[in-house]
Amino acid sequence: MKVSDLLRRYEQGEIDFAGIDLQGADLRGVILIGVNLSNANLTGANLSRAFLIRAKLEGACLHRTNLSFAKMNEAYFGNADLTKANLSGAFLVKSKLPNVQMSGSILVGANLRAAMLTNANLCGADLNGINLRGADLTGTNLKWANLRGARLTAAKLTGNLLTGVNLQGACLNGVNLALAELDGVNLSQAKLNGVNLTGAKLVAANLSFAQMKAARLNRANFTGANLEGVCLKRAHLNYTQFSNADLSHADLTDAQLKGVQLHGTCFTGAIFPASFQEYLQRTSANNSVSSLSISHQMSAS
Fold it and tell me: Judging by DSSP bridges, how do beta strands 270-272 and 265-266 pair with one another?
């Protein structure tokens, strides 16, 4: 169908364009509010700055489609193919994208607040600076995705695939990541205050200078992790594994440290509760701590 025919029929009140073929079409800035584009072929089309508010795109093919800065709040993309699509700056607040294919797509600066992306495939996607606050990402594949500076406060991240994900500087305050597999993940400078990482695996992860106040980290595994300069004030660290980890200059003021594992751990310049000092000194005497130069927790004057 020609673009001119589509727009004419829309202006006449028609909104059902299911199965339409618009491959490679120039649809920049078009207004198609509430249209049905289910199973449409929009491969390589240019929908930059288009208005697709409440549009239905179930099963649509949007491979390499340009949707940059498009307005698509409350749109439905169930089972759509958005592989390598460009959604930079797109507005998708409260949109629904269950089971979508978005591997290799670009969503830099996109707004998906309160969106639903259950079981979506975002493997290798560029999500730098994306807004995912309150989004449902249950079962989503985020392997090798770039989430640097992403906002994920109150997002649901249960059952995610997170191998190789970059979360540097991301905001994950209060997020539930219990039992998550985060080995080798980059969380440096991330905001993780109040996060639940109970039983999570963070072997060789980079959490340098992260903010983790009041985080729940009981029985988490930080073996070989980089925690330099991390803030762990009031954190729950009971039975947590820190073997061969770097906790230099970390702040563990008022942290709970019952049964913590410290073999080969570096504590140079770290701040610990005063009650924990004696235990550390005994551990150091048994040569199980690689470096023990700590600061005492001081009470506020």
Answer: unpaired
CA distances (Å), 155 to each of 48, 112, 172, 197, 252, in order?
Answer: 27, 11, 8, 14, 27
254-296 residue pLDDT tens? 999 999 998 999 989 999 988 787 666 665 555 455 544 445 4
**CA–CA separation, 100 and 105 (whole Å):** 11
Res 183 pLDDT > 70: yes
Other Cβ atoms less than 10 A from the Cβ of 259: the count is 11
Helix (H) or strand (E) holding 296: strand 294-296
Q: Can you read off the two tokens belonging to residue 27?
A: 């649809």
Percent of the chain whose predicted confidence (pLDDT) is above 70: 92
Quick check: 229 pLDDT over 50?
yes
CA atoms within 13 A on the CB side of 298: 5
Measured between alpha carbons, how far is 70 from 110 in angstroms, rounded to an integer?
A: 10
- pTM for the model stands at 0.90
- The CA distance from 277 to 25, in Å, is 68
What one-character-per-residue DSSP string does 144-194 give?
Answer: T-B-TT-B-TT-B-TT-B-TT-B-TT-B-TT-B-TT-B-TT-B-TT-B-TT
Q: What is the pLDDT of residues 130-160, one digit of tens each?
A: 999 999 999 999 999 999 999 999 999 988 8
- The answer to whether 5 and 25 have CB atoms below 8 angstroms apart is no
SS3 content of the chain, % helix, strand, coil (to 5): 5, 20, 75
DSSP 3-state of 91: strand
Alpha-carbon distance 114 to 74, whole Å?
A: 10
Cα dihedral 67, 90, 108, 202 sign: negative
